[in-house]
TrEMBL record:
Gene: LOC102386022
Name recorded for this polypeptide: Multidrug resistance-associated protein 1-like isoform X1
Species assigned in the record: Alligator sinensis
GO CC aspect terms: lytic vacuole; vacuolar membrane
Record-annotated membrane-spanning stretches: 105-127, 147-165, 218-240, 246-266, 325-352, 718-739, 769-790, 867-887, 958-991
Domain of life: Eukaryota
Protein's membrane topology: Multi-pass membrane protein
Length: 1288
């Protein structure tokens, strides 16, 4: 059942009267309210319980489980073993459980469709009888009125049944989509790593958004598979009654068209497959670009990645072009088929018997039947094509759903020993394509023990925790684990919700314990500075809090869960030294909140090791050493060697001298101070706290009011005015010729009635038939030309709008991406672009055709019965009134529905990122419920949209039915003054006007409501952009040559309504100087580097680099000449080579040199494909430390004169940190280096230290002099518990 919500408005449908139900009058209150004001969520009706995901998903999942058991007997082969051929031939099929779940609804929908189809053939028979009355002039008035009334009753009954069919059909199809989306989500939570690595996050999201949508669209058209042939058969039977065996000629034409349609369907299938594959690649790349946008901006790589996206997009456009040309061919065949059928039928009718003549009854009854035949003939190829597309989607979905799950039997939870975690001869790997990661593990961890896992980068520390969680593929041995688990991942996973919900993580609020956890995890000071305390909303991936805050929130979540076993993957590396000590003492250590819990801590900090019960030393995937601190030291083995790289055997401090200024500044002393090597000088929470206040997370804005004409004009401009005028000409011509054909038949039959001498008629017959055929042929050519022109124009619009959106997004400032969910932007590039690529031009084309149809129909009927104009005016007024009422509500419901789609995508993407954490905590079912919540919101809007469409359709069709009635009534009233041919012409046109008017209003609404997609695509163009990438002023080649940076009275703020983040910053570096930047949390360290790269623009003052004011040159000229190693090591999917050198500027030799300097050469050489080794999405198949070394190698290749280190070694062990620092000292010796302080030796090697406080410079001198001054820097050192020797 859904969770209780205060705004629920249950549907009054169940208690409505029969009349209210069939006319949907019970929904009028929403339509009226929507006309008065923009609708909101609270104004809409809830789903019926049977339609909600809370009912649909469990029923379908039950049937799916039955199917899995039926086909595989519950067995699946492991990833490293081939599935037996019998199993592979009988993998679980998605269609069978769908049928079992929804069969009663599908049968009900089918029966309604049968009734509606049968009624469609009654109207032409009534019209035939009316025409015969005029021909025979027998009892014209009484029978005429009776037939007119019968015609009205039939079309009204047809309307009621057809709208019931549409309503149940649409709701059944969305239930099918809901069920499949629920199953995909549940599968994503249980996917084994061997299967997960085959699918990127973008591909899995695409399964949910595209393939499940395709399944829904197929369900909508499912009944046409039998209904279209049924209607064709019925039409042929009735035509036989009119024209005899000659109808077989028409059937022969239809049979000849079938292989053409089959060929087109096969080609469409191939093109659809190619298009979906290309769309997957585009979305995957866009997803990575948006998640790594900071790196793209810092390295000035936007243009390169923009070209990569556009290359994929051009391939996609080529596929769409081919599809468009196939559609043009289809339009030609579809338009020509009814005409060719009628031409062949009439021609053979004359040939069979010289005495055969075409009377008005025969012609217009046949024409009405041919018109009925047109729709199924139009639908059948589309449905065949949809079947082909759905088959591809079904295959993709079944492949995913039948992928390997994590094996719960990997973990033995039922054992007699008293240890909490145990490995017995256990070996592991990630998937069948990877090498063995962990080898022959043997260890037992007692309950309540504090265990440290240490080792170098890539030694298998994080994999050790993953093996305990059951995330890895077990090759042999046993893993034992008892009790509940809490897990803190190395890269903190944060949900897009308020901070308190992130910590509670589904548990109830225990206020006293909650506050103890906040205090222990050092979050209380942060809460005071956050805008709304613990009620502050945290953005996607925690974008609006710092790295240290994310890690502490993640730790607080684990602590609050009160689990039995705690797996902590290096949580202390991303926090300040004093915060790290606080966390160890208050949470992890022997006196912390977890003192009686089993706690396994991966760490690079050696200071905490003496207080642990057990230390496990990892080396190359094996346990190299194991024991407590003293035992390992006494062995003098790997562990002691590891320590000796940095320190002497001391439990509390490891010291290193601090050098005085090597340039011997005036007054400089040569005294040596000593500080603990392994400590941090300044806070690592690098994000400026004012930034959090400045940029709260934004919800997607839902526009209100009518779609501006300027939005449609933007589409038409992108479409191209030449193509627009050519389209108008083509469609005007084809509609004029269609009317001409029918008028020609009318005059032809009138001549038959007036001609007594059939010999003369026979002489004219061939000419009449020839002209009829010529008109049809020209019409077909114009249809083909119109479709071609529309295709060319729509492709032009797709290309232009996508390029404009991509260009606008890449020019947005970084702050936009930090405050807007990526899912929201991806939604524009997927759902909204799909609307532009495939749907919008179809809506425009259909609306134009229907408009011309309606005008032509009114002209024809009015010419036959002039009194009809008196009815057209009031009925036209009612049409526009209903349309105006409906469109206001429909537009807003669709806008709300569009906005509700992004949370579904965002929640799904968020779940994919945090799946290991969710599984570790055992919260899979809670997240499944959350998914149902966001899907339910989306389906509520869909339900209200369906009902509003039915409300409109019933009223429009009723007005259309009145037009049919009055056309017949006026014909009866005219009596013998009109001929039977005129009556036949006007009534046959009137029977078509209902559908044309309905389509006309519907498509007008579709254009306006789906114009929202164009509105959303174009809105990025209106947003504030960052400065131009290139300007007319270009720096000289080789700039900067010295690396002298000068800040002059520099000021910066994050937003105009906020205070200054940097105030009166003035300092100058020397050429090739090494400067450390330190300060407390919120001091402005990262703000300073953001200003250097112009991520944040100035509010005053200026920055000069080698004599050039950086505000006068383009961003790319600036950023491409600076270098940075960022805190978060971001990699993109692709080869290792493309990650090191995406622009392809360097030779393989240079790449290998950079890898050697970055200590990665041996690792890369051990890989089968070496530089062409595939890096998975986000670099997930490399450890965090290895990713950081790749970033170092990337920086080594750039070789600019200025390098910024932004907390670059927080995620690596001490030895790797030492290696990185020594490499930087050696390789960047001739560069100016700015370092945001982290581990102490970074500052030791700095020639001067810049100390910031509240956005101001408070100290700037050598470390030696700053310690003597007893100022802020000295105070920070003392607070961190660091000692120094003034006499050294």
């Amino acid at each position: 059942m859904p969770p209780a919500r205060g705004h629920e408005k249950f549907s009054p449908e169940e208690n409505a009267s029969f009349f209210s139900k069939v006319t949907y009058s019970w929904y009028s209150r929403v339509i009226t309210l929507g006309y008065k004001k923009p609708l909101e969520r609270e104004d809409l009706f809830e789903l019926n319980e049977s339609d909600s995901p809370y009912t649909v998903c469990p029923n379908f999942e039950k049937q799916w489980r039955k199917e899995v058991l039926r086909t595989t007997k519950g067995l699946k082969a492991p990833c490293n073993k081939k599935v037996p051929s019998k199993t592979s031939l009988h993998k679980p099929c998605l269609l069978y459980p769908l049928w079992q779940t929804f069969r009663y609804l599908l049968i009900k929908v089918g029966l309604l469709k049968v009734a509606a189809d049968i009624l469609a053939f009654v109207s032409p028979q009534i019209m035939k009888e009316m025409i015969n009355l005029y021909k025979n002039h027998s009892d014209l008035h009484w029978n005429g009125y009776r037939y007119a009334l019968a015609l009205l009753l039939v079309v009204i009954l047809q309307t009621v049944i057809h709208q019931l069919y549409q309503r149940f059909n649409m709701l059944t199809s969305v239930k099918i989509k809901t069920a499949v989306v629920g199953l995909i989500y549940r599968k994503a939570l249980t996917l084994a790593n061997c299967a997960r690595r085959k699918y990127t996050s973008g591909e899995i999201v695409n399964l949910m958004s595209s393939d499940a949508q395709q399944l829904m669209e197929m369900a909508v058209n499912l009944n046409l598979l039998w209904s279209a042939p049924f209607q064709i058969l019925m039409a042929i039977i009735f035509l036989w009654q009119e024209l005899g065996p000659s109808v077989l000629a028409g059937v022969a034409v239809l049979v000849l068209v079938i292989p053409i349609n089959a060929f087109v369907a096969a080609k469409v299938k191939c093109l659809k497959k190619s298009q979906m594959k290309t769309a997957d690649q585009r979305v995957k790349l866009l997803n990575e670009i948006l998640h790594g946008i900071k790196i793209l901006k810092l390295y000035a790589w936007e243009t390169f990645y923009q070209k990569k996206v556009m290359e994929i997009r051009e391939h996609e456009i080529d596929v769409l072009k081919s599809s468009g040309y196939l559609a043009t061919f289809s339009m030609l065949t579809l338009t020509c088929i009814p005409f060719l059928v009628s031409l062949a039928t009439f021609g053979i009718y004359f040939l069979l018997d010289e005495e055969n003549v075409l009377t008005a009854a025969k012609v217009f009854t046949s024409i009405s039947l041919f018109n009925i035949l047109r729709l199924p003939l139009f639908d059948l190829p589309a449905v065949i094509s949809a079947v082909a597309q759905t088959k591809i989607s079904l295959g993709r979905l079944e492949d995913f759903l039948n992928s390997e799950d994590l094996d719960p039997q990997n973990i033995d939870t039922n054992y007699s020993a008293n240890h909490a975690v145990g490995f017995i001869d256990a070996s592991f790997r990630w998937d069948e394509n990877s090498t063995q990661i962990l080898n022959n593990l043997n260890v037992r961890i007692p309950e309540g023990a504090l265990v440290a896992v240490v080792g170098q980068v890539g030694s298998g520390k994080s994999s050790f925790l993953s093996a305990i969680l059951g995330e890895m593929e077990k090759l042999e041995g046993t893993v034992q684990r008892r009790g509940s688990v809490a897990y803190v991942s190395q890269q903190a996973w944060i949900q897009n919700s308020i901070l308190q919900e992130n910590i509670l993580f589904g548990s109830g609020l225990n206020k006293p314990y909650y506050e103890r956890v906040l205090e222990a995890c050092a979050l209380l000071p942060d809460l005071e500075q956050l805008p709304n305390g613990d009620q502050t909303e945290i953005g996607e991936r925690g974008v609006n809090i710092s790295g240290g805050q994310k890690q502490r929130v993640s730790l607080a979540r684990a602590v609050y869960s009160n689990a039995d076993i705690y797996l902590l993957d290096d949580p202390l590396s991303a926090v300040d030294v004093h915060v790290g000590k606080h966390l160890f003492e208050k949470v992890i250590g022997p006196s912390g909140l977890l003192k009686n819990k089993t706690c396994i801590l991966v760490t690079h900090s050696l200071a905490s090791l003496p207080q642990t019960d057990l230390i496990i030393v990892m080396e190359a995937g094996r346990i190299a050493d194991m024991g407590n601190y003293q035992e390992l030291l006494s062995k003098r083995a790997n562990f002691a060697e590891l320590l000796q790289v940095f320190s002497t055997e001391s439990k509390n401090e490891e010291t290193l001298p601090i050098k005085s200024d090597s340039y011997s500044l005036k007054g400089g002393s040569q005294k040596s101070y000593t500080l603990p090597q392994n400590e941090f000088l300044g806070p690592n929470d690098s994000s400026f706290l004012d930034q959090k206040k400045a940029f709260p997370v934004k919800k997607e804005k839902v526009p209100t009011g009518s779609t501006e004409m300027s939005i449609i004009l933007k589409y038409l401009q992108a479409f191209g005015w030449l193509w627009i005028w050519l389209s108008l000409a083509a469609y005007l011509g084809q509609n004029a010729l269609a009317i001409g054909q029918n008028l020609w038949l009318s005059t032809w039959t009138a001549e038959v009635e007036q001609t007594n001498d059939l010999t003369e008629w026979k002489q004219l017959r061939d000419n009449k038939l020839g002209i009829y055929g010529l008109l049809g042929l020209i019409q077909g050519l114009l249809v083909c030309y119109g479709a071609y022109v529309i295709t060319r124009g729509s492709l032009s619009a797709s290309r232009v709008l996508h390029h404009q959106m991509l260009d606008s997004v890449l020019h947005l400032p970084l702050q936009y991406f930090e405050t807007n969910p990526v899912g929201q932007i991806i939604n524009r590039f997927t759902k909204d672009m799909f609307m532009v690529d495939v749907r919008f031009h179809y809506y425009l084309r259909t609306w134009l055709n229907c408009t011309l149809d309606v005008l032509g129909t009114i002209l024809v009927i009015t010419s036959a019965s002039p009194l009809f104009i008196l009815i057209v005016i009031p009925l036209g007024y009612l049409y526009f009134t209903i349309q105006r009422y409906y469109i206001a509500s429909s537009r807003q419901i669709r806008r709300l529905a569009g906005a509700s789609h992004a949370p579904v995508i965002s929640h799904f993407s968020e779940t994919l990122l945090g799946a290991p954490t969710i599984r570790a905590f055992g919260h899979e079912e809670r997240f499944v419920r959350q998914n149902k919540d966001v899907v339910n919101e989306n389906v509520v809007y869909f339900y209200n949209n369906v009902i509003s469409n039915r409300w409109l359709a019933v009223r429009l069709e009723f007005l259309g039915n009145l037009m049919v009635f009055f056309a017949a009534l006026f014909a009866v009233m005219a009596g013998s003054t009109v001929s039977s041919s005129v009556v036949g012409l006007s009534i046959s046109y009137a029977l078509n006007i209902t559908q044309s008017l309905n389509f006309w209003v519907r498509k007008a609404c579709e254009i306006e409501t789906n114009g929202v997609s164009i509105e959303r695509i174009c809105e990025y163009a209106k947003m504030n952009k960052e400065a131009p990438w290139l300007t007319s002023k270009r720096p000289p080649v080789g700039w900067p040559s010295k690396g002298i940076i000068e800040f002059i009275n520099y000021q910066a703020r994050y937003r105009t309504d906020l205070g200054l983040a940097l105030q009166e910053i003035s300092f100058q570096t020397r050429s090739q100087e090494k400067v450390g930047i330190v300060g407390r949390t919120g001091a402005g360290k990262s703000t300073l580097t953001n200003c250097l790269f112009r991520i944040l623009e100035r509010a005053g003052g200026k920055i000069i680099i080698d004599g050039i004011d950086i505000s006068t040159i383009g961003l790319h000229d600036l950023r491409s000449n600076l270098n940075i190693i960022p805190q978060d090591p971001v990699l993109f999917s692709g080869t290792l080579q493309s990650n090191l050198d995406p622009l392809g500027k360097h030779s393989d030799l240079e790449l290998w040199e950079a890898l050697e300097l970055g200590d990665l050469k041996n690792f890369v050489q051990s890989l089968p494909k070496k530089l062409l080794h595939e890096v998975s999405e986000g670099g997930e198949n490399l450890s965090v430390g290895q990713r950081q070394l790749v970033c170092l190698a990337r920086a080594l290749l750039r070789r600019t004169k200025i390098l910024v280190l932004d907390e670059a070694t927080a995620s690596v062990d001490l030895e790797t940190d030492h290696l990185i620092q020594s490499t930087i000292q050696k390789e960047f010796d001739n560069c100016t280096v700015l370092t945001i302080a982290h581990r102490l030796h970074t500052i030791v090697d700095s020639e001067r230290v810049l100390v910031l406080n509240s956005g101001r410079i408070v100290e700037f001198d050598t470390p030696h002099n700053l310690l003597r001054q007893k100022g802020v820097f000295s105070e920070m050192v003392t607070e961190a518990g660091i000692t120094y020797d003034t006499d050294a």
